[in-house]
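Final report, closing paragraph on structural work. Over the funding period we assembled a curated collection of sequence-structure pairs, and we close with a single example.
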Amino acid sequence: MTGTSSEKRDVYLSLGTNIGDRRANLDTARRMLEDRFGCRCKAESSVIETRSWGFDGADFLNCVLCFCLSLPPHEILRVCKDIERSMGRMEQVEYGSDGRRIYHDRIIDIDILLCGDERVDDPDLVIPHPHMRDRDFVMVPLMEILDEKH
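Its predicted structure, as stored:
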């Protein structure tokens, strides 16, 4: 792990939901993140609707949020996982016979995309997110925010 200083840096989170009132799920997750981080969201992308990725399920609503935080990456992950659980997400990590992860419907999914210039490569957390460049539902809203900053 590099860049573990306590200086504030921009942290980009991807949110997705395909169960229940999807718009309300995103709003609830954003409010809970703001409450837990003790700050308002610095930037928020448009919400986009996309087909489920990696499985046959209902369409997702996705967005990216940016927070300016000094928390360590693993603490940010803990906050995200706590919020997912409190909103009713059941962790279902399964792998098929080919070794590929099997994805499921979810009330909320919060992934850490970027954490300033920090790099993390641990079994439970990889930053930058290893699959973000392969997923338009992440890159389109992320690029919207990044383009606004420049």
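The mean pLDDT is 87. The helical segments are 22-37, 73-86, 136-149. We thank the funder for supporting this effort.
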